[in-house]
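Cross-posted from the bioinformatics board.
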Amino acid sequence: MNAPNQSGWKPAMELSEDGMHNGPATTTGNRALMLEEPLLFEIGRVDVTGVDLPAIDPAAPTRLGGLARSEPIGLVGLTEPETVRHYTRLSRQNYGIDLGFFPLGSCTMKHNPRLNEKMARLPGFADIHPLAPQSTVQGALEVIHQLGGWLCTLTGMPAVAMSPKAGAHGELCGILAIRAAHEARGDAREVVLVPESAHGTNPATAAFANYRVEDIPATPEGRVDVAALKARLGPDVAAVMITNPNTCGLFEKDFREIADAVHAVGGYVYCDGANFNAIVGKVRPGDLGVDAMHINLHKTFSTPHGGGGPGSGPVVLSEALAPYAPLPFVRKDDAGTFYLVEEEDREERGPTFGRMTAFHGQMGMFTRALTYMLSHGADGLKQVAEDAVLNANYILRAMEDILHAPFAASGPCMHEALFGDKDFGGGLSTLDVAKGLIDEGYHPMTVYFPLVVHGAMLVEPTETESKAAIDQFVTAFRAVVERALAGDEALKQAPYYAPRRRLDETGAARKPKLAYEG
Amino acid sequence: MRYLPLTDTDRQAMLATIGAATVDDLFVDVPEVARLDGPIHGLPMHASEMAVERHMKALAAKNLVAGEVPFFLGAGAYRHHVPASVDTIIQRGEFLTAYTPYQPEIAQGTLQVLFEFQTQVARLYGCAVANASLYDGSTACWEAVAMATRVTKRKRAVLSGALHPHYAQVVKTMAHFTGDTIADAMPAITAEPDLDGLIARIDEDTACVVVQYPDILGRISDLTPVAEAAHAKGALLVVVNTEPVALGAIKSPGEMGADIVVGEGQSLGVGLQFGGPYLGLFAVRDPKHVRQMPGRLCGETTDAEGKRAFVLTLSTREQHIRREKATSNICTNSGLCALAFTVHMTLLGEKGLRELAADNHRLACLAADRLAKVPGVEVLNNSFFNEFTLMLGGKPAREIVRDLADRGVLGGVSLGRLYPGVEALEHALLVAVTETTTEEDIERLAQELEASIKETV
Amino acid sequence: MRYYTDEHEWIDVEGDIATVGITEYAQGQLGDIVFVELPEVGALIEQGKDAAVVESVKAASDVYAPITGEITEVNPALEEDPALVNTSPEDGGWFFKMTIADEGELDGLMDEDGYKAFVEGL
């Protein structure tokens, strides 16, 4: 896919009125490799299984407290060959990074190295129990300790909480630590300041912790309005939550000044680390006055997104917040033995705010992320940030002559380039451009986020794309944008070539059908 | 660097196109104080695949693998056999390297899997609707409490003493910050749980009562009276299940009147993984509560050509639209673990899940009978599925577990580990038995336990 | 008598009860309505405070109480058929009825001509 279309092939067929290829219909509804697949519940059978187990002995004594199941569950089964085929066919209706360029802004869809998968599956990591005696899981505790060490060093922060299960869970961890720190000194505060361009999780998290959320305005150049922020600061402000680099793809150059001002009124600085990929190995957030920052291991450190999870969201903490870190955490004693600090370790646990999850966090993600870090090293991670930023700026410059780039004059972008929908013809919108890109074989960029730009298109190429792949994307992106500017009506019906055409999302929401009936 | 496709020639050409002399010109907005003169100090440089593999394998080798010794740990994480095809499917790049299905036209694979997953979970739990998964059982438990407070507009939750203590801990931690009141309790070491005592704690201000089924000690009881008592006071019943395989053998929580059923799905497809990533399951019995649910939901619809298709729906509940008014701040779910669960459940089917459950129970009964014969040991439970509580005749269970590990047996989870410092619980040991346990394993545990008890003061 | 607010709600006053809905202009801006969250009967709501939420696929918008009063009735048809807000916003798609705590508050609202001019000025 790195080379442009060198075969010279071009589709000769014209589209018919309904936008379909002129070709005979098939009996099955399949089109060669594009295969329709029924639901499991339409092909599975109640009496079929793909696992060989001993037959049930109805005479066997049970001790189920008189609650043996009498009603059928309503499940169906498939044999192994049918199962493999069913899910393989479904997989082919998905777009993934393995298949092509996936410039989904703010999501950092980079290549997932397969060594990480292999290491996570070592039985020494995959087949150990979270409550096993600690003497039997020293290697697992050491993985957590080593990964925590990398995260602290990369961010220039003194402490890390490893248990949060995802980015939003990490945000919650940081905000709860902030609340606990204020409570500990009898300083109840009510307000968290969040820029308008923030991820929706920021205000949702602050509201969860019973804070009132107030917006901070942005300057016309796409950064936090420092004067407005300073004017709002006071003894009621618990924290500011700032994404850096921000969701407009810009580095908050006044971050240090903001942090100093927030600290001066007794508040804390939460940094949303969703965009850490732009600066990993290059800038340490600790040098900018951050008190807490979550790190999405599934973004910067390439644990796979898996169709929406699992993620992992460790949080680095400043000296001021470290004592409030959630349990459990891993420590190493003088003899080199690793151990867990839990609820019982009253002295060592400090004034922790509590527990966020049953066990120790996303171990399977830790092994993958540590493998990724060891592979890249300090030099490789620096190169990651530089190449990610280089690729994004290259796309920004390649598009800005035909596509509205509201902050192109604000200096270089970081790891993502932001565009808006100005001057599209024929009532066409950002959504139509996104769907047009699907037909060109690309996963669309993030659309309609951040909210501060009309019809936003946020393009994040990451560092794992070649120049040829980016050049080819730019060619396709420009072609689709030119169609939008020209008001090409056909774009309104795109995609034409995906497994499905546009969906009736209104119908789905008006009459929700959330489980198979039958 | 094997993962970075740009060459120095590419970089120079791209910088020239951009109009920058060096890549550092792209970082001009970083303040002086935060600029570094080279790679961050204190970390190694990049390493070959072989070298990294060596490092990781050395760490893995320091752990005692569950599958290599007689193994009896449970307490919220169970070791089951995962069919080989599950891992093959979840490693397909189209699933592994996909994102949340925000562009449904090119994400029907993930979406149809989620629809199948939601259906399987709803049926297993005896509920109308399940969501597309949450982080794990403990966070799902808190989300259920939070949802109950939204539905009832009350701020008090009553926790059964036999709820997993880490789940209770998570709920209490969160409630502290939301201003909800949590009435919790310690488990009573009795053959039957004290449901009357639990019912007596439900009052007019109670949003929900949270009960684990089977409970932390492995006991199984009919929760219908708790449901009726809760409903009589206008409260909801939240049932927590940490072992989905059990529901192949026993009544579903929905059948007993649970309003919200949550649990851990790790048993199917996911594996032990030292505690994560796991799979939070969340379902509601009454479809009218759907709009108060947290997390993502996948729904059926049609495309512009009338073909059946699936899409994330009811998104207005979620943080990216509602922001500070969202039902939860959750963004990520546990998608790939949900896929693993669904593939494993598909391989099992109704027949396989029932057989698997029966086999777990058969082996657990065998183990309970054998272990009861160890001098000084008693089985506490009247009822259990695949996990039960042993009383060790006044011996400290925590030390016994450590001693057993030294003898090469992972013999269970001591209540001392789960409830540190609670004297009344120090002498109890949780033992879990699954289809992966052999009769030889059981015999070995019995013998080592006998020896250990003799030698432990 | 029908009044309008600058939040695009209409209020019909009949005796001491007011019926509230959103305007034709508002439904056009919101797009296809998929759900309406209505207040509870008996709730006391102050002028300008959240009274209902109207949802399209990708947005949720608050509907504010145009005046202070107690909710006496909500439109049961919207639960089954939220599309009524699109097809009949100023009639069958009404949201709720409420008492009028302070008739003076009505004076601050627009009449039909005033609202027409207001919309044209947007």
